[in-house]
Amino acid sequence: MEFESRAQVEAYLRSTENIEGSKQKSVLSKVVEVTAYFIEKTGMSSLYTSVEEIQDILSTLDKVLKQGKNLERRTIRKLSVLFAPSGPIQDISIDGGWSKIFFLLARYVDETLRI
């Protein structure tokens, strides 16, 4: 599935299917999938974020998917930093032209983690 608009992303986050079309995943898992999709679509270059930092972000997002609902406290803290205003994912989203989608994703992270 490809996302071209904020509306498509929001519809997916509210839907009962994940990207592969299988059973419903948690909202946080969906946010992580969509974020990884846009980071990979943008490419491994960003004016404000190094390739190593982008790889670290993708690694953290992968950990979230693997941990499921049993997120470690450290992972929760890292997610809150990654999705913070002026955080690394926002920088990547600005460079990649998907900053409006980032704000939607960040809102879902905040609501899910109750930040």
β-strand amount: under 5%
Mean pLDDT, to the nearest integer, reads: 84
Number of helices: 6
Q: Roughly how many Å is the radius of gyration?
A: 13 Å
Folded structure, characterized:
This protein is mainly alpha-helical and 115 residues long. It has six helices and no strands. It has helices at residues 6-14, 27-42, 51-67, 73-82, 88-96, 99-113. α1 (6-14) runs antiparallel to α2 (27-42), α2 runs antiparallel to α3 (51-67) and α3 crosses α4 (73-82). The protein is globular and about 35 Å long.
Task: Tell me the layout of helices and strands.
Blueprint: H1 6-14, H2 27-42, H3 51-67, H4 73-82, H5 88-96, H6 99-113
Give the structure's gist in a few sentences:
The chain is an all-alpha fold. It has helices spanning 6-14, 27-42, 51-67, 73-82, 88-96, 99-113.
Considering the chains and any ligands shown, give keywords for the structure.
mainly alpha, 0% strand, globular, 115 residues, single chain
